[in-house]
């Protein structure tokens, strides 16, 4: 929706989608090899050599990494800077807030 309104945006996820031959396991191995420490980034490049996004090793554990995509009207470096600024402890605050809202809504429906 934001991209349709010409606003800068990028996607953030706790899980990497399987795209162009890239799997969660491969990305975790990539993080362990190239960004093993807390607050390090590594670009995710597809089999067709296209930059898909980046992994942010927020805690120092590849299993807890956050993934973000190449954005609309925003470069990957800027998206990474934003992720770093809005992270608190081991989570991105906006992602945590959305997760909490979703959990509360699901609980209300059950």
Automatic annotation (TrEMBL):
Subcellular location per the Swiss-Prot or TrEMBL entry: Cytoplasm
Name the UniProt key words of this record, in alphabetical order: Cytoplasm, Endonuclease, Hydrolase, Nuclease
Q: What is its main location?
A: cytoplasm
Single GO cellular component annotation?
cytoplasm
GO MF terms here are: RNA endonuclease activity producing 5'-phosphomonoesters, hydrolytic mechanism; single-stranded RNA binding
Q: A GO term (biological process) for this protein?
A: DNA repair
Task: Say yes or no: keyword Ribonucleoprotein present.
Answer: no
Q: Which InterPro entries did the record assign?
A: Endonuclease-V
What is the protein name for this chain? Uncharacterized protein
């Amino acid at each position: 929706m934001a991209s349709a309104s010409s606003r800068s945006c990028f996607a953030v996820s706790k899980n990497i989608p399987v795209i162009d031959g890239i799997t969660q396991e491969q990305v975790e191995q990539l993080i362990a090899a190239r960004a093993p420490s807390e607050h390090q980034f590594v670009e995710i490049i597809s089999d067709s050599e296209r930059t898909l996004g980046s992994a942010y090793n927020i805690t120092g554990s590849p299993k807890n990494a956050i993934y973000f995509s190449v954005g609309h009207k925003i470069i990957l470096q800027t998206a990474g800077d934003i992720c770093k600024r809005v992270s608190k402890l081991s989570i991105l605050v906006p992602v945590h807030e959305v997760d909490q809202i979703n959990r509360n809504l699901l609980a209300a429906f059950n």
